[in-house]
């Protein structure tokens, strides 16, 4: 069996000299004046001084490596912490009622009833995916899956929100196919259905693609595992892949600074080395972990991700009730001559670290042997206060673990609203020239359907397995993915992720609320009840006050919206420095929403034509809202004005009505209205259902506004014959605007829109499905 | 034998992915499912065996190439020789070809991408153990999901397969992977061992698959076992 990572490791030309003297704690105390390369490792002068203060001496090389990765932006959240507190401050006890674990754990966990719990999280792997699209995306999936495993859950699905530069740009043709293949190559091999995600194109992501990865896991609510090292004498076991030279310094170098930094600094440590993934090893690791949990052989567990062993040992010890001793000589390596700093910061994939009672070690090892997983006792929990790491008989790390894991620097970065925001807001999109004639409207429907952000994602999602595990009830192109959790009761969950970053650019507070509202609505249209929120906050440089303003506003928008919707934010991820040169990406706070559906057989599909004699109804209010709209981009290349108004009470009402409609079997299809407005929703409902429809817009309506405005809080539904009166009464009793806009026509092979004309489904399909294959082969 | 008395084993290799789905399909057809472990040189008295989809042993070297050396496969080859019904789906088809139970090989899709989609198939043979429930010429909608599913064999082999009526299914409405002569699934000389790239176990319930067209394969085998 070949191991691609081993080859990569042994080919590394810079083999360290194993004969070098060890930089031990003793040595550090003897040589306080030694010049240390802390700046090259990404530490600021005052951060280095603080480390010296904490230790009362200079750090050893290994300690310096640990602090530098753990205090990096990616691991310590030093620029975002002060803002992220707001999530906790706005979460009420009532919202917290169903949360079994929240922010600060590896992933949030929510009780979904019947003894089941669900954990879900999104993480970014943006920079590595630009450098090496396949491996960057693949290891992004691998990392988030291990986060979910660390909660004691079985991973059951993935979904990937992706953002790229212009669809026709040469570099997008390099990055996108590699990323998609990496997501598929890893996820497919793990046997995890990919049930959602996004693909968005925008100029601002041209040299900063966003590769976010979501994973969802399921566990029994009493089987939660936590990452803590408790019980002096318990053993620390490292299991999974061997530790090599891949990804050393990846976290601090790639996530803390832009690419302008030199790559020669301290030799290979500065090389932007992207980790290499082996999904087979991870698949086996999943099964091995689940058997270990099921046999109750684990006291605490942590995955090894960014910052590798530095992170796992310090976080486990910091969350525990004592100290820890590690003997680095026992760590199984796959490269020659690695020094302690390298072993501690290696980001070799597919590794986990467990705390195990001494009497369980033999059983633990037996399970690992069954799955052919390498497992090694590397240390034990102590009743001391320090994390102490030895190498070749000398102590190379002796630190209070919380100073590494929890007590990193916190920055109050300058925050300033850029003056240009007013100019952008004043550049009203509602004044742009519009199609006027029926012919122009018809042409606009087709042009929009074929545009890169609205066209079919089949070229991408067709490379992902969405069937494996046999519980996928809805997947892309549905608004939300739906999975069966319990085969007996039919209980299931839904997930969706969303962010229209053009809205966030126009107004980061309202844009973030809109992102959450859309993800919430996308869960609701499946018939599921939204119950929790996660996020992945992708922004430019934290040192740009304008970016920090976008960040601060977005966090507040998300938190306030979650509070208004009454569902908690259970976790999240921050990725700064998504900018090349002076231009940051559009602020992209991706919101992920988890929903629960009591019986998955009641799920609402997207395509029309499933039931006889369906009527089409539009729920919600349509306003003249074109700021940030897809139409303004596609037709005018314009971004200005204000984003659509958000009414979260309306979103809740909409979700309630959809939930009842699903439960009572009143709805045969439902589709959220977002980018591209009603026209795009109708195109998709017809094409997915392979059925035509006749649309009659209200008499007083301006057809252009009705078809292309992006007002929030709207859903198009189809209602089977016999259910229409009951459903419209349900809407009017609750005060939800509901207007009939047409009928589904089983005979017709066209979308017929009064005042626009007939568009054969074949013509629509060619427009909608042709774009990505034409661009990407 | 009653239907529930029929015991159908499903092998789990490290890296098997659709083993749970195959077992669910067996139960849905009314038989009893039995988990078989790759390291066991024992079929635990099962009446038929399914080699499921996935990436056995990571599919390193070549798809299915390592799995054929698993202790359980020695037993499968022996039992197949004695006429036990064996079904290989996707990676399982690759394993059966590597193990010499079926002719030909599965190579990289001609489009070079992994493909997951609902695929139309036409039933060419309804006399094998696994296809008696279908009408000849019937069209089925069943998911495919693979990166290496292009069926390749030399012309004389293909001629013989066709001449003997051993092609079970062909792709219609588009060949997704460049398989020679649109072949999606085949059987051995006795019609007991079958292999196909599409996933019948993912088409046993319209809730989670495009149709329940795949259920017929499991019911077909069950008919044979019950009649025996």
Automatic annotation (TrEMBL), chain A:
<feature type="active site">
    <location>
        <position position="74"/>
    </location>
</feature>
<dbReference type="GO" id="GO:0005524">
    <property type="term" value="F:ATP binding"/>
</dbReference>
<keyword id="KW-0963">Cytoplasm</keyword>
<feature type="domain" description="PurM-like C-terminal">
    <location>
        <begin position="612"/>
        <end position="748"/>
    </location>
</feature>
<dbReference type="Pfam" id="PF18072">
    <property type="entry name" value="FGAR-AT_linker"/>
</dbReference>
<comment type="subunit">
    <text>Monomer. Part of the FGAM synthase complex composed of 1 PurL, 1 PurQ and 2 PurS subunits.</text>
</comment>
<feature type="binding site">
    <location>
        <begin position="347"/>
        <end position="349"/>
    </location>
    <ligand>
        <name>substrate</name>
    </ligand>
</feature>
<feature type="active site" description="Proton acceptor">
    <location>
        <position position="125"/>
    </location>
</feature>
<feature type="domain" description="PurM-like N-terminal">
    <location>
        <begin position="478"/>
        <end position="596"/>
    </location>
</feature>
<feature type="domain" description="PurM-like N-terminal">
    <location>
        <begin position="104"/>
        <end position="218"/>
    </location>
</feature>
<protein>
    <recommendedName>
        <fullName>Phosphoribosylformylglycinamidine synthase subunit PurL</fullName>
        <ecNumber>6.3.5.3</ecNumber>
    </recommendedName>
</protein>
<feature type="binding site">
    <location>
        <position position="572"/>
    </location>
    <ligand>
        <name>ATP</name>
    </ligand>
</feature>
<feature type="binding site">
    <location>
        <position position="303"/>
    </location>
    <ligand>
        <name>Mg(2+) 2</name>
    </ligand>
</feature>
<keyword id="KW-0067">ATP-binding</keyword>
<feature type="binding site">
    <location>
        <begin position="124"/>
        <end position="127"/>
    </location>
    <ligand>
        <name>substrate</name>
    </ligand>
</feature>
<comment type="function">
    <text>Part of the phosphoribosylformylglycinamidine synthase complex involved in the purines biosynthetic pathway. Catalyzes the ATP-dependent conversion of formylglycinamide ribonucleotide (FGAR) and glutamine to yield formylglycinamidine ribonucleotide (FGAM) and glutamate. The FGAM synthase complex is composed of three subunits. PurQ produces an ammonia molecule by converting glutamine to glutamate. PurL transfers the ammonia molecule to FGAR to form FGAM in an ATP-dependent manner.</text>
</comment>
<feature type="region of interest" description="Disordered">
    <location>
        <begin position="1"/>
        <end position="36"/>
    </location>
</feature>
<keyword id="KW-0479">Metal-binding</keyword>
<feature type="binding site">
    <location>
        <position position="121"/>
    </location>
    <ligand>
        <name>ATP</name>
    </ligand>
</feature>
<feature type="binding site">
    <location>
        <position position="77"/>
    </location>
    <ligand>
        <name>ATP</name>
    </ligand>
</feature>
<dbReference type="InterPro" id="IPR036921">
    <property type="entry name" value="PurM-like_N_sf"/>
</dbReference>
<keyword id="KW-0460">Magnesium</keyword>
UniProtKB/TrEMBL annotation, chain B:
<dbReference type="GO" id="GO:0004359">
    <property type="term" value="F:glutaminase activity"/>
</dbReference>
<feature type="active site">
    <location>
        <position position="201"/>
    </location>
</feature>
<dbReference type="GO" id="GO:0006189">
    <property type="term" value="P:'de novo' IMP biosynthetic process"/>
</dbReference>
<dbReference type="GO" id="GO:0005524">
    <property type="term" value="F:ATP binding"/>
</dbReference>
<keyword id="KW-0547">Nucleotide-binding</keyword>
<keyword id="KW-0378">Hydrolase</keyword>
<keyword id="KW-0436">Ligase</keyword>
<feature type="active site">
    <location>
        <position position="199"/>
    </location>
</feature>
<dbReference type="GO" id="GO:0005737">
    <property type="term" value="C:cytoplasm"/>
</dbReference>
<protein>
    <recommendedName>
        <fullName>Phosphoribosylformylglycinamidine synthase subunit PurQ</fullName>
        <ecNumber>6.3.5.3</ecNumber>
        <ecNumber>3.5.1.2</ecNumber>
    </recommendedName>
</protein>
<feature type="active site" description="Nucleophile">
    <location>
        <position position="90"/>
    </location>
</feature>
<dbReference type="InterPro" id="IPR029062">
    <property type="entry name" value="Class_I_gatase-like"/>
</dbReference>
<comment type="function">
    <text>Part of the phosphoribosylformylglycinamidine synthase complex involved in the purines biosynthetic pathway. Catalyzes the ATP-dependent conversion of formylglycinamide ribonucleotide (FGAR) and glutamine to yield formylglycinamidine ribonucleotide (FGAM) and glutamate. The FGAM synthase complex is composed of three subunits. PurQ produces an ammonia molecule by converting glutamine to glutamate. PurL transfers the ammonia molecule to FGAR to form FGAM in an ATP-dependent manner.</text>
</comment>
<comment type="pathway">
    <text>Purine metabolism; IMP biosynthesis via de novo pathway; 5-amino-1-(5-phospho-D-ribosyl)imidazole from N(2)-formyl-N(1)-(5-phospho-D-ribosyl)glycinamide: step 1/2.</text>
</comment>
<dbReference type="GO" id="GO:0004642">
    <property type="term" value="F:phosphoribosylformylglycinamidine synthase activity"/>
</dbReference>
<keyword id="KW-0315">Glutamine amidotransferase</keyword>
<keyword id="KW-0963">Cytoplasm</keyword>
<dbReference type="Pfam" id="PF13507">
    <property type="entry name" value="GATase_5"/>
</dbReference>
<comment type="subunit">
    <text>Part of the FGAM synthase complex composed of 1 PurL, 1 PurQ and 2 PurS subunits.</text>
</comment>
<keyword id="KW-0658">Purine biosynthesis</keyword>
<keyword id="KW-0067">ATP-binding</keyword>
<dbReference type="InterPro" id="IPR010075">
    <property type="entry name" value="PRibForGlyAmidine_synth_PurQ"/>
</dbReference>
